[in-house]
Amino acid sequence: MLFDAQDHIARRVVNTIIPHIHGSELRRIRHTPPESMTAYDLLLQARELMFRLDKASYEEAGVLLRKAEALDRDYAPIHALLSDWFALRVGQGWSSDPDGDGVKSDAAAQHAIGRDPVNAQALSLHAHTRAFLHRDYTGAVRLFEKALDCSPNDASSWMWSAGTYAYIDQGAEAVERAERAIRLSPRDRFAFRYYTALSLSHYTNGSYEEAVYWGHQAINASPGYTASLRFTIASLSASGQMEQAREMARALMQIQPDFRVRSVRERHPYRDTDRRDRIANELVLAGLPE
Description:
The chain has 15 helices and no strands. The chain has 290 residues and is mainly alpha-helical.
């Protein structure tokens, strides 16, 4: 009973107080002269630009993160967000060197952990890059366990771990983890990632209608997030909703004109190659170029 009460209190803090703090901090930064910005100010500004998910803003966010890093190399959250920046750059299809950016993402996460060994965000991002970019699923699961030991109510750790459990074909466990992430942080300004994780988890679990529903929630929250588009297209295709799948495929090509399905066959982090072929085939059926 005591632990349930503590968990409930923690969720209320995350759901009600933190979003207001974030908004007030952004308003403060808008009135701060550039020369007076601290590393923390630059971090918040970079995060805001990064999740607009247009390429120009994204690159500007990378510049700000490097400025923040130069101001305070020992501030772990900067390196954690840099890790996220490099990994998401690969996921969005904006990287000209996916392997190199994967190495940089890993290095930034490890640097953050070196500065703050109990930083759950850094640990979970390191875990995510191990699975998403390097297919080190065993190492990723171990890191997620450590992240959640350090911070059991960290929604992002539950969200990232949902993806990894989907990659290793544990769809039911992935769904539970993604749902817990959403319960912990339902008002997160960047909740499209939580919805995308739940969409992927349901797709992996074969519950395509639910995958489509949560995919639409993610797309409504952030139309430029290409991962949510891909999973929703595959789910629509798998459930025989071809007209909607083709319409969404056209939307994906407008955002990412150079997208090719072969990148999914080669780089999707599903451990099972049959899984990778299946999602690739569903994307091809929706009209996406091989």
